[in-house]
Amino acid sequence: MRLADHTTLRVGGFAAAALVATTEAELIAAVRKADDMGTPVLLLGGGSNLLVADEGFAGLVLQTKVRGIHHQDIGDLVFVTAACGEPWDGFVSVCLSSGAHGLEALSGIPGDVGATPIQNVGAYGVEVGNLIASVRVWDRQDQQQRDLSPQECEFTYRSSIFKAQPDRWIVLAVTFALARTGLSRIAYDQLAELLDLEVGDTALPSRIRESVLRLRRSKGMVLDETDCDTWSAGSFFTNPIVSAEVARQLPLDCPRYPASAGAKLSAAWLIQHSGIEPGFGLNDRARISTKHTLALTNRGQASAADIIELAKIVRAQVLSTFAIELKPEVRLVGCSLD
Length: 338
Hints:
The protein has helices at about 25-35, 90-95, 115-120, 150-155, 160-165, 190-195, 205-220, 245-250, 265-270, 305-320; strands at about 15-20, 40-45, 50, 55-65, 70-75, 75-85, 100, 120-125, 125, 130-140, 145-150, 170-180, 185, 200-205, 240, 255-260, 260-265, 285-290, 295-300, 330-335. It has about 350 residues and is α+β, with helices and mostly antiparallel strands. It has three domains: about 5-65, 2-Layer Sandwich (Uridine Diphospho-n-acetylenolpyruvylglucosamine Reductase, domain 2); about 70-215, Uridine Diphospho-n-acetylenolpyruvylglucosamine Reductase, domain 3, CATH 3.30.465.10; about 230-335, Alpha-Beta Complex (Uridine Diphospho-n-acetylenolpyruvylglucosamine Reductase, domain 1), CATH 3.90.78.10. The strands form seven sheets. Strands 5, 6, 7, 10, 11 and 12 form a six-stranded antiparallel beta sheet that branches. β10 and β11 (about 145-150) form a beta hairpin. It starts with 14 loop residues before the first strand and ends in a 5-residue tail after the last strand.
């Protein structure tokens, strides 16, 4: 298997071995066998958050194709459980059409359901960690299946216990606690502006989904085979969280949002105001998206090394200009920015 054919960045060498799991039992059995043999395992869902080295992966690439969605009404909530291999945006659409809302601001995000708790995926003021009721996992350390509560998942900004301990947990399914059909609250200024509303106002979930998809398409953040600006891993860097003192030293027009440790800044703003414009590149193979400076894109012939080189330049430029070091949101496999 050539990993470039299975990731949205379209880079990455060959896997030493590959297997497709279509049931939880197959997934667990494959992981157990690999662990018994001491073989490294790379789980592959939608491939939307991976940058794999040109040398490939010297282990087992396990594609998670486990499917299934189940609903249960309890009181005022709808508990929706999705298998790890369910495509995320399709799942969001199913939830809305079945009368469960809360995920609509996360529309258009590529990848599968199983990846969302790992990154604590978020967009437009919503994070999955605030909507997850439980995560069913295979614990590779204790050799047992478990159901973890949100507290046990240790969700933080773009992180979780799954990201902190990547070699221990296999996400099998995720259960979300969603509201019945009604109005959803707007929690992000850009979305509110598009809807001609204010942050804190409410709107129909279907209208929010439509607006989010419009916003994401305008930024090249919805996959399109014909548009190289979408041949990316989405936001390559996380928005940095800095102390209030550091935030005060930045220009007043730098977007910032309250965070537990001070302020969360816009990585896209920092990149562009460090002198890196949309479309910037060191060659014709890897470039910053022409639509959004937070996306590093493959223009058709890029290697993983090209993407890494571009990422290093971006990180160094922001560090030199603002004394803030950007951290990758993308999972790096066999490669590093250091």
